[in-house]
Write a structure and sequence with these properties.
EC 2.4.1.-; 2 domains; Glyco_transf_92; Spore Coat Polysaccharide Biosynthesis Protein SpsA, Chain A; Glycosyltransferase family 92 protein; alpha+beta; 505 residues
């Protein structure tokens, strides 16, 4: 009985639906009949009265796509963009009959100058570090003028500003993307700037100077530095540096392995000693777990962490690392005797019976030296570590070194920063002193490429041999860093206790 009732309900529903849509069906059939009649009539019209099928489709689409009037008015449209500019002319008719086309620029392709920092380089010189449009420098000749404006007149200085030409350095060797790195040197000849310490401000006038658009020039006035009255410490430029060794790190980004960061900082604090300091630049890589690893060393005064995530708005090479290292150079120029530039998957090493102090003393006649690379496998480990690799530190278990010879490998470097005008990632090309690359046997660095961003177990291949070939690359066993692991672990325990013992990859 129930099944019969259900069947009866389905029939009633179907019939009711036909009744409800009867009007719509009649309208649809009438429309189709009319269209067929028009199509038949068109066949008997003369050719000059023909209507193309595209025209017919257009008319039909206009009818079918026109939305019904809304029952309620839509909310007003709010735009965050600038108001529309009036329609400009696209062409002009010249007296000689030529049609002159007109090109109307709108908006801005890239910023003229983006400042990261401005710093004193002495009593009469400054450095301004920032980014600028790469096409502007590739195809044009932008110029810079520096102006010092005193806060107050004094016996030594009038209130009249002093002006000098800015000398630009482009230290990223053309690697820039939309933006390239620019370091502007402002040296005011003749007298000390703000010598009476009454205060003042440094203004940069950045001019595009045509830059391909020869009929157009823009000069931006940028206040880059202000010295309050009494803020200048002139003794800083001649005094002994606070630190013997200073680390300027490149931009850190991605999902970094906190355990690898833990190992790296513990190793290098011990390596460089108590008169050392590390500046870490966070471009998105210092997530909460990495921050927990750095905090103990920040509290002890060894680490300064800078958040530079906003630089991602400006498309430069490799998270703008050239700008970052130049800012670090000039910001801390007078605080360090030696400044090192390398990455957090690289470990500096000097041979037994030497120290970093003795090695750098032997290189003190140079203002810059480069450091030889020891490339290590990031996958091959010893079979004797099977089952306990997760408990060993990265440089403790990765013990196979790439043994290919006769090829050029990347180097890292150290400098006496007071001699530099600008710097790079692998070395500086803008310095006043001497450089040497002959440091083999005195100092080197072990490179564990890719391990800093690997959150899983690095040991993928376990072997029990002194030599192995993987992907056509010959490796030899090198336990140099493995042999130091015990000492580093004891040093970390002594310095910060057990607070990082539960750190995981």
């Amino acid at each position: 009985m129930a099944m019969a009732n259900k069947e009866r309900e389905k029939k009633f529903f179907f019939v009711g639906s036909l009744v409800n849509y009867a009007a719509e069906l009649k309208l649809l059939l009438a429309t189709l009949f009319l269209l067929c009649g028009v199509a038949t009539l068109l066949q008997f019209l003369p050719s000059r009265f023909t209507i193309s099928s595209s025209d017919l489709r257009f008319c039909i689409s206009r009818v079918s796509l026109t939305p019904p009037p809304p029952s309620t008015p839509p909310p007003p449209f709010t735009s965050l963009s600038t108001p529309p500019t009036p329609l400009s002319s696209t062409q002009k008719h010249l007296p000689n009959g030529t049609i002159k086309r007109v090109f109307n620029p709108h908006g801005s392709a890239a910023y003229n100058f983006i400042t990261m920092g401005a710093y004193r380089g002495g009593l009469n010189t400054f450095a301004i570090v920032g980014l600028s449009s790469k096409p502007l420098h590739v195809y044009g000749k932008p110029t810079y003028v520096c102006e010092w404006i005193p806060d107050l007149p004094s016996l030594q200085n009038s209130s009249k500003p002093i002006i000098t030409k800015g000398l630009k350095y482009l230290p990223d060797w053309g690697y820039g993307h939309v933006y390239t790195v620019v370091v502007v040197n402002c040296t005011f000849n003749g007298t000390a700037v703000n010598g009476d310490n009454t205060g003042g401000k440094l203004v940069l006038h950045a001019s595009t100077s045509g830059a391909g658009d020869t009929g157009f020039n823009v000069t931006d006035r940028i206040e880059v530095l202000h010295e309050a009255p009494g803020a200048l410490n002139a003794s800083l430029f001649m005094s002994k540096p606070k630190y013997d060794y200073f680390y300027c790190g490149s931009s850190l980004y991605g999902n970094l392995n906190p355990q690898r960061v833990r190992e790296w900082i513990a190793y290098h604090v011990r390596f460089f000693g108590p008169k050392s300091h590390f500046v870490i630049h966070d471009a998105g890589g210092v997530h909460e777990e990495v921050l927990e690893v750095l905090k103990p060393w920040m509290e002890l005064g060894f680490v300064t962490l800078q958040d530079i995530r906003d630089q991602e708005r400006f498309d430069g090479y490799y998270h703008n690392q050239f700008m970052v290292v130049n800012d670090c150079l000039h910001r801390y120029k007078f605080m360090a005797k030696w400044m090192f530039f390398f990455d957090v998957d690289e470990y500096i090493y000097v041979p037994p019976k030497t120290t970093i102090k003795s090695v750098l003393h032997s290189l003190s006649e140079y203002d810059q030296f480069t450091i030889e690379q020891m490339p290590m496998s990031s996958k091959i480990c010893l079979s004797e570590d099977y089952g306990k690799t997760y408990r060993k530190w990265g440089f403790e278990k990765l013990v196979y070194r790439d043994s290919i010879t006769g090829i050029r490998r990347d180097r890292k470097y150290a400098v006496q920063p007071r001699s530099l005008y600008a710097t790079g990632v692998h070395m500086s090309m803008d310095l006043s002193g001497k450089t040497t690359h002959k440091t083999e046997g005195r100092i080197k660095y072990f490179h564990y490429h890719g391990t800093i961003s690997e959150r899983r177990e690095t040991c993928k291949i376990l072997v029990n041999t002194t030599q192995v070939t993987q992907n056509k690359i010959p490796y030899v066993m090198d336990t140099t860093m493995r042999d130091t692991a015990g000492v580093i672990k004891k040093f970390e325990l002594k310095m910060i206790g057990t607070r990082l013992q539960k750190t995981r990859q």
